[in-house]
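Field reference: sequence -> structure
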Amino acid sequence: MSERIYYDTVRKWLERDDYYCGGPKRHEFFYELGVNYAKPDVAGIKNLTPPEGEFVDEIIISVIEVKDLWNLTERDVSQAKRYLQMAHLAYVANTGEIRQDAIEYAKREGIGILKIQTKDKVKVIYNPVKSTIISEGKMLAFLHKMNIYQCTFCRCYYYQELDGEQSDCNIHRPKIFHSKNPKNDPYDIYIELPWDKITYRSLCPQCVVDFFPQLLPETKRKRIVEYD
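Structure field:
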C-alpha cells in the first residue's frame, strides 16, 4: 500500500515528542499492530512527566492512521474513532487535501488531524485532547501486541524480554463467576477453562527478583545468590 512509505515519517514525528515507537534495538517498530477490531498504522508510547507521573507509572498511547488520498473526508476520519478505546490519542495523517467537514468531524469526535507535507515534515491541523473513553482491558490487550505489560504487583509498565526467562507473564486466574461448575466443589475453581473465562496477570522482572525469586529458573537464582 502507498501509505506504508509514510509510516517512518509519522513515527519520527511522534519520536520528536518523546514517544517510543519500537525499533531494532529491542523490538520491531510498532507498525500495524493491534487486535482484530483495530490495527492502527503507527503507535507510540511515552510516560507522563511529574507531577502527574510522580507517584504512578502512567503512560500515554498515541496512534496514527496514515492516508494517501487526494481529499480526506469525514468518512475517512471516522475510521480512527475505534482506536480511542485502546489509545489516549488518535490521529489521521493525510498526504493530500483535508476537507473542512473532515476537520469539523475530527474536532467533534476528538480525533487529531495531521498533514504530511513531505517525507520529513508533518503539520498539525488539529491536536486532540486526551481520550476519556479508553478501555483498560483493550489498552492492555493492545500493549500486549507490543510486548509491553503492566506488572500486577508494582503496577509499572515493562517490556517482556525476548528470552522470557526473568518474568512470569503466563499467570492465569479464573474469572470466578464463570468458573464454578455446579457439578463440582464450588471452591474447586482452578480447572481448565476456555480463554475467555480466564484473566491474565504479569510480574515484571524486577519484582520477580526482589519478591518472587522462586519463580526464576534455578540457574538465575544461583547467579543472584552469588552476586549478593
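Note: The first helix runs from residue 7 to 15.
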